[in-house]
UniProtKB/TrEMBL annotation, chain A:
Keywords: Oxidoreductase, Thiamine pyrophosphate. The keyword Oxidoreductase applies. It comes from Asterophora parasitica. The lineage of its organism: Eukaryota, Fungi, Dikarya, Basidiomycota, Agaricomycotina. This is 2-oxoisovalerate dehydrogenase subunit alpha. Belongs to the BCKDHA family.
Automatic annotation (TrEMBL), chain B:
Residues 81-264 form the Transketolase-like pyrimidine-binding domain. Its cofactor is thiamine diphosphate. This is 3-methyl-2-oxobutanoate dehydrogenase (2-methylpropanoyl-transferring). Keywords: Oxidoreductase. Its EC number is 1.2.4.4. The lineage of its organism: Eukaryota, Fungi, Dikarya, Basidiomycota, Agaricomycotina. It comes from Asterophora parasitica. GO terms for molecular function: branched-chain 2-oxo acid dehydrogenase activity.
Length: 305, 332
């Protein structure tokens, strides 16, 4: 999401995807929240299963190399230290080093995959130690040091282009999302000490560290910090409130994009089946009527076909 | 850095966030469908000890399985459990009775993301109930290896769509090892668990507390009938129950759409229970009596399990059918 915001995807697009509403351009409300995607921002749509992007990114890098106008571009691929346990990780790095493909692999090692600490994820020396095994230039960086990450990514990109093959970067961090839980149904205090999380939040946190650096340079102060926090919070809430009011995509979108080109008979028949059901029950059956109102044009796109 | 927030794995559990948002944005609760039964109020659920103990095919491990089928319910206790509690209970029994049994998978040690292994690692130790790295092909292969050694391997695949990386191990290895080794090796001791039913936790039933088994390849007739066979499995069992209720006693809004003549039809509702082997005998016996078959499943129609059953039933019951077999399935 950070990449997308940096590339001016915008909070509205983020929120619309999370709500899966009619303005969700990432996937027409078909995917779960945080599954962003945008060709305009050169951002491949996120998929739920883990690590599938890693071998794909090797293919993307190779395609970039073979596209005359894109020869100064590389593929960047993000994943966590947990995903690096999937077979796809090994397949992807092997391909990106052998074929080879200018792909920058950015592993974010924050120590936890849901409840599983990295000590149960690997016995070796993290993710970085695997790079040399695949013949890939590798760097491990303090992921909580914003400037160090920037420098490492720049150098990684330079080497990708210079050598035309993959580079692996491991950013060492510590999961500290807001209150520190993986998601709302998670209670991370079941497997992490409260004091440990608090200490990390206070001392070794990329945001507070960068703020302290800026303050020490005289570029930032408590007042600016407060102003920024307030403004960002307001921006997020505005986007949130706007987004939650929108309807869903048209109901007929259920049947689009299954295949490209001419639509086969099975999809046509299944759409007609739904249309027939709508015609019969859409008005009279209250639960359906209520549900239909949530879609743009309330199912009329199907009924008027 | 909000690192895991960006990963697909993290958002797997975000539906709960969405639910919370909904509850604060004046979106009404899902319609209950009038007074029709839903999963929470289903008549099919075994909510009494007696009905639980009369589950067809139920066999207790300490009874002689060659004996007559179970009709006596004396001497056995049941307890109220939801799906994940029942799964946890079964694994606890396996771990107690079988020294070779182990339970493993992603985030299993802290209780599992669906809470199926709550307390098991504390009770049986981390050597027997343990986390694996995030590698489904590894989990399946590891389980196969243990099972090949005659051990009991109980593997969890965290979410249903995570199982596909394991398919090489499952299809090319687990399914074929007995055959390709000429019967020298088998993985009979391997169990792969994946989630079922998005609202499975709401399903509360009485469950026998002793060590018991239910048969594979045996369907269960939930509602007897004579005019049409309605065959399903998994979550749609409860949708079918609701549909039967709506057909026999339509709400005022639907009365006009449900002809009187259809309201008294006797529909036989069958839960297939296992997909392979599937209970061809029970299904064909039923269809020969009713002359009609409707198959309901969640997966898409094309090349779905319904297609297989439909082909077999049309072959075996061709002269008894009064209508083509109908499939009601997920859209593709």
């Amino acid at each position: 999401m950070g990449v997308l915001l940096w590339r001016e995807f915008g909070l509205d697009n983020v929120m619309n995807q999370c709500f899966g509403n009619e303005f969700d351009t990432s996937g027409k409300g078909r995917q779960m929240p945080v599954h962003f995607g945008s060709p305009a921002h050169h951002f491949h749509t996120i998929s739920s299963p883990l690590a599938t992007q890693i071998p794909q990114a090797a293919g993307v890098g190779y395609a970039l190399k073979r596209t005359p106008a894109r020869q100064h571009s590389i593929a960047a691929c993000y994943f966590g230290e947990g995903a690096a346990s999937e077979g796809d990780f090994h397949a992807g790095l092997l391909l990106a080093s052998t074929i080879p493909s200018p792909t920058l692999y950015i592993a974010r090692n924050n120590g936890f995959a849901i409840s599983t600490p990295s000590t149960e994820q690997f016995y070796g020396d993290g993710i970085a130690s695997r790079g040399p095994g695949y013949g890939i230039d590798t760097i491990r960086v303090d992921g909580n040091d914003v400037l160090a990450v920037l420098a490492a990514v720049r150098e990684g990109r330079r080497r990708c282009l210079e050598q035309g093959r993959a580079v692996l970067l491991e950013a060492m961090s510590y999961r500290q999302v807001a209150v520190g839980h993986h998601s709302t149904s998670d209670d991370s205090f079941a497997y992490r000490a409260r004091s440990e999380v608090e200490d990390r939040k206070r001392i070794d946190n990329p945001i507070s560290r960068f703020r302290l650096f800026m303050e020490s340079q005289g570029w930032w102060n408590a007042e600016a910090e407060e102003e920024l926090k307030t403004r960002l919070k307001a921006d997020v809430m505005t986007a949130f409130k706007k987004s939650e009011k929108f309807q869903r995509h048209e109901l007929g979108e259920l049947f689009t994009d299954v295949y490209g080109g001419e639509e086969p008979w099975n999809i046509k028949e299944q759409r007609e089946e739904l249309t027939g059901l709508l015609r019969k029950y859409g008005e009279v059956w209250e639960p359906w009527r209520t549900e239909l109102a949530k879609f743009k044009n309330a199912g009329q796109d199907l009924l008027k076909r | 850095m909000h690192t895991t927030k960006f990963s697909a794995r993290a958002v797997k559990r975000l539906p709960s966030v969405v639910r919370r948002w909904n509850s604060t944005s004046a979106v009404e609760a899902p319609p209950a469908g009038g007074h029709a039964p839903s999963i929470a109020t289903s008549q099919i659920l075994r909510t009494t000890r007696e009905s639980a103990l009369k589950t067809p095919g139920l066999a207790f491990a300490d009874e002689d399985s060659s004996g007559p089928s179970r009709t006596i319910v004396g001497g056995r206790e049941t307890r109220k459990m939801n799906t994940y509690q029942a799964v946890r209970d079964a694994m606890s029994i396996a771990l107690q009775k079988d020294e070779t049994a182990v339970v493993f998978g992603e985030d299993v040690a802290f209780g599992g993301v669906f809470r199926c292994t709550m307390g098991l690692s504390e009770e049986f130790g981390r050597e027997r109930v343990f986390n694996t790295p995030l590698t489904e092909q590894g989990i399946a292969g590891f389980g196969i290896g243990m099972a090949l050694m005659g051990h009991t391997a109980i593997a969890e695949i965290q979410f249903a769509d995570y199982i596909y990386p394991a398919f090489d191990q499952l299809v090319n290895e687990a399914a074929k090892v007995r055959y390709r080794s000429g019967g020298s090796y088998n993985v009979g001791g391997l169990t792969i668990r994946t989630p079922t039913m998005s609202v499975g936790h709401a399903k509360v039933e009485q469950v026998p507390i002793d060590d018991f088994e239910l048969p594979l390849g045996k369907a269960e007739v939930l509602v007897p009938g004579s005019d049409l066979t309605l065959l399903t499995w998994g979550t749609p069992v409860y949708h079918c129950e609701t549909a039967l209720h709506m057909l026999s006693s339509p709400s005022p809004a639907l009365e006009k759409l449900v002809p009187e003549s259809l309201r008294s039809v006797k529909i036989e509702l069958i839960d297939l229970r296992s997909i392979l082997p599937w209970d061809v005998e029970t299904i064909t016996e039923s269809v020969k009596r009713t002359g009609r078959l409707v198959i309901v499943h969640e997966a898409g129609m094309t090349a779905g399990v319904g297609a297989e059953i439909s082909a077999e039933v049309q072959k075996r019951c061709f002269l008894k059918l009064n209508a083509p077999v109908k499939r009601v399935t997920g859209w593709e």
